[in-house]
Amino acid sequence: MKNRLFFCLMALLLSAGMNAEVLRLETPNTQLVLDATEGQELRVLYFGDKSATLADIEAAGETGSAALPVFGDIDMIHLPALQVQHADGDLSLNLRVAKVESLTSNSDSGLTSNICVTLTDKLQPVTVRVFYKACHDVDIIETWTEIEHQEKKPIVLKRFDSGYLHLGEGEQVWLTHLHGDWAAEAVVTNEPLTRGVKIIRNTDGARNAHLDAPEVMLSLDGAPEENSGRVLGAALCWSGNFEIRLNVPNNQGVHLYAGIDPQSSEYVLAPKQVFKTPSLAFTYSTEGMGGVSRAFHRWARTCGMLHNGNAVRDVLLNSWEGIYFDITQQRIIDMMDDIAAFGGELFVMDDGWFGGKYPRNNDSSSLGDWVVDTRKLPGGLKALTEAARERHIRFGIWIEPEAVNTVSELYEQHPDWALQVKGRDLKLGRGGTQLVLDMTNPKVQNFVFNLVDNLLTDYPEIAYIKWDANASIQNYGHLTAQRSNSPKDGLTSNLYIDYHLGLLKTLERIRAKYPNVVIQNCASGGGRANYGLMPYFDEFWVSDNNDALQRVFIQWGTSYFFPSNAMAQHIGGSPYQMTNRVVPIKFRCDVAMSGRLGIELQPKHMTDEERLQCTTALTDYKVLRNIIQLGNLYRLVSPYSSLQATTVAEQQVASLMYVTDDRSEAVLFAYSLSNFMKQAPRRIRLAGLDPNRTYTIEEKNIRVQYNHDKGAWDKGEPCSLHGKQFTGAYLMNVGLLIPLSTEYTQDYPSRIFHLK
């Protein structure tokens, strides 16, 4: 019966006097306690550590807070999580518990428990169902709502948050959130929450993670710590526009609201139509931000939020930064030879392979014309899939299904398939010609499905698809559906939401027919790193920026919520095109090896040193990748500490490690981020190990050295820690002085160690 109690869902009486129906949903280390007394407001009595008993909660006098604050039923110091405009113009709701249902189910993703509390309005025929779901053996709870009505005319959903949480304390709470831009994603921001309302939102329309991301952490004990302190983490599982609000009124604690951004998206809901909000996933940890991260990683891998989440990903070469649009059949086959020689397992042909009337030679034409350009590839895709098979590697291909260029046969034939406003000038994106297709249109949904279906039917050897999305929704309108200017028709005001519902519907069709094809979620880099789309994808492209030094920071922030086997990390060229930074191949390999490893350059331009180091890296990575991709992440030393350094006396480093569930093995990464002579070495204390075990340290991806006797590059020598043994207690309490001195290596030295 061990660990079988965490879905204990029960109706209890806190006391005879209270006569309250109390529901408790448990995970291994947390619990959510609800008061669902019939005829009363649904209230959250407690969310937090599992050690608190119902008696403790009662003795503390916890009255809780509304599980779903609604306009018309709250005082004005609070913000509503739900507001509707009824057909008669009334803006209020008074929701009370009508029914409670519980369901425990067993599926491929494991045992889950669900609570559904049905709320009805006292005056209007509106029904709201509030759901809570917990997944077996994972410290994550999801909540969402379903809204429907029986009014005679449509109603308007003016605010429809997925979830709300009230934290009783507010004086010492710090907020951690991710901000960024193209090629500079996932910048970590830590700030104390002060009185007032803090809003985090994204209004790109199609991609919601380039700027503000739909995930936050709240540290309850002051400035956040990595492996200690009470932290709440939350992620909105939605791919479109979102808004997270944090309200800190006087002496009222912190109020967290998260949902679809209602700006330009007040949703018109027809009678009997059911609107389902995306889920809000949240967790609580006493192990700091790292504990929150590990909970989200495990949930992603085991509960179906990440497609085939426990699968180990292939090592690949992508053609983009190697040859860009200059694709020829010979160049592609030559690159296949290279990745096979390195020991890789997959080759991906990126943009530039398609186009009939309009060849795809740059980014200004051809999107939508998904036919092979036989001027570049005379043997077609068949010649490439056969070449991959002969080299014992798999083959992948790039597509951008949701976009069209005005210079394309598709646009000439179906201009109405693109989002646009009748009579207004088009706002054009990448290449000066790009538009977003109208995914609310069933014909467009069929077109996108058929693109994937035809590729995989005609070429069943395709094992991998890179699905890109490089445009925002800038033209807010449909040509085929635009009938009036009234928002009550629901055609325009629903666009931002219905676009993503149409996309999800299409992805569901694709995954139902092709569950085993690996699909990467790319959106000008990490623009779609969100849990709204991750159930349909196997990984995402972390950033278009492959500069290894900046990637340390980008990958660090991304790891706050996403597991390493979902993070595509590639070895780029040097000097790197975006930053012009010269970074040694050893550092580039070591940074990319901390996630799903790949290569993104032209192997023909590599030096002998680079080729040997890459071969060494790929060989060692395949030994370590089960630990890296499926292990528990511990972030040890933040790269952001180097940005705050006031002296060059101490070496500035970043370090992280992955540990297996049974704590028998680990992989440690250490990177030097500063380059000054005579710096004091940095002692790094490890985490997550068994203090009573002894670990042997083995250095991996050892830096290659030039052998003057041979006149060639050769295997290098490991550092002084190689082969040494330490107890887990020593490694965690005392730590290691890792050799990262520029006196003995070169700029940006780095190390990888396998602990066994």
In short:
With 756 residues, the chain is of the alpha+beta class. The chain is 19% helix and 30% strand. The strands form 8 sheets. Strands 7, 8, 9, 10, 12, 13, 15, 16, 20 and 21 form a 10-stranded antiparallel β-sheet that branches. Strands 22-23-24-27-28-29-30-31 form an 8-stranded parallel beta barrel, surrounded by 5 helices.
Can you put this structure into words, describing what you see?
By secondary structure, the chain is α+β, with helices and mostly antiparallel strands. It folds into 3 domains: 11-299, alpha-galactosidase from lactobacil brevis (Beta-galactosidase, Chain A, domain 5), CATH 2.70.98.60; 316-632, Alpha-Beta Barrel (TIM Barrel); 635-755, Sandwich (Immunoglobulin-like). The model is unreliable at 1-18 and 482-490 (pLDDT under 50). The protein is globular and about 90 Å long. Strand 17 and strand 18 (254-260) form a beta hairpin. The protein has 13 helices and 41 strands. Helix 4 (329-342) packs parallel to helix 5 and helix 10 runs parallel beside helix 11 (608-630). The longest helix is centred in the last third of the chain and has 23 residues, at 608-630. The strands form 8 sheets. Strands 7, 8, 9, 10, 12, 13, 15, 16, 20 and 21 form a 10-stranded antiparallel β-sheet that branches.
> Which descriptor suits the 3D outline?
globular
Q: Provide the CATH topology of the largest domain.
A: TIM Barrel
Number of strands: 41
CATH superfamily of the largest domain: Aldolase class I
Distance between the termini: 31 Å
Indicate how many domains the architecture comprises. 3
Q: What value does the average pLDDT take?
A: 92
Structural class: alpha+beta
Provide a count of the helices: 13
Rg from alpha-carbon coordinates? 27 Å
CATH uppermost class of the largest domain: Alpha Beta
Based on the structure given, which CATH architecture of the largest domain is correct?
Answer: Alpha-Beta Barrel
Strand content: 25-35%
Regions with pLDDT < 50 over 5+ consecutive residues?
1-18, 482-490
Helix content: 10-25%
Q: What summary fits the major beta sheet?
A: 10 strands, antiparallel
